[in-house]
Recover the amino acids of this structure.
């Protein structure tokens, strides 16, 4: 800016400036002082303008929308309380995903990776979970009524406090013996799965 160039050109020590201006008319010093004040005022106005423009730009720019991630995995993959009922989700991955309270009733999750997913209070009623990876999945409060889990992997899945397995088909599910016996002690294992025609009791080989 010309103002900065002017200020640089007239830089000097106070003693030098005194010597250079000694003997000069008082009017000249008054003009220089006035010019200096004008430059300072211009600088303040410029700074105010920049701040104002930045503030206006901040107000006018739209806020970035929050995006719900529906695949890819990772601890930050959150679909908590989302309605995914009846959807074909076979191409997605929910590795360690947050599915708390999600509605997955009637969804097609065949062969889907749900390893380590947090499915507390999720609704899987009537869902197709054939061949799904449910290893280490938290299913406390989850609803598996009428779900088809044929061939699913459920080793270390947390099912002790599951809400319902009424009508669920566990045929060929990979599950620990102690977990199997625990499920067989439930009162809701006699219903028939409407898709496969198999009772929950028979699919678990309960006595």
């Amino acid at each position: 800016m010309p103002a900065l160039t002017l200020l640089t050109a007239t830089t000097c020590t106070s003693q030098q400036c005194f010597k250079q201006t000694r003997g000069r008319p008082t009017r000249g010093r008054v003009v220089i002082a006035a010019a200096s004040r004008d430059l300072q005022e211009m600088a303040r106005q410029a700074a105010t303008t920049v701040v104002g423009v930045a503030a206006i730009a901040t107000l006018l720019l739209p806020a970035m929308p929050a995006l719900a991630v529906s695949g890819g995995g990772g601890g930050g993959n959150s679909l908590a309380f989302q309605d995914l009922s009846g959807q074909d989700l076979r191409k997605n991955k929910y590795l360690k995903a947050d599915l708390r309270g999600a509605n997955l009733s009637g969804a097609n999750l065949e062969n889907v990776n749900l390893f380590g997913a947090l499915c507390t209070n999720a609704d899987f009623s009537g869902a197709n979970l054939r061949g799904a990876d449910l290893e280490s999945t938290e299913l406390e409060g989850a609803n598996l009524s009428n779900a088809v889990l044929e061939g699913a992997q459920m080793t270390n899945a947390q099912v002790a406090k599951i809400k319902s397995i009424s009508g669920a088909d566990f045929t060929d599910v990979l599950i620990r013996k102690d977990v199997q016996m625990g499920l067989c002690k439930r009162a809701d294992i006699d219903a028939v799965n409407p898709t496969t025609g198999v009772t929950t009791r028979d699919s678990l080989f309960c006595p």
Summary: Residues 2-60 form one domain. The helical segments are 2-9, 14-21, 26-60, 177-184, 200-203.
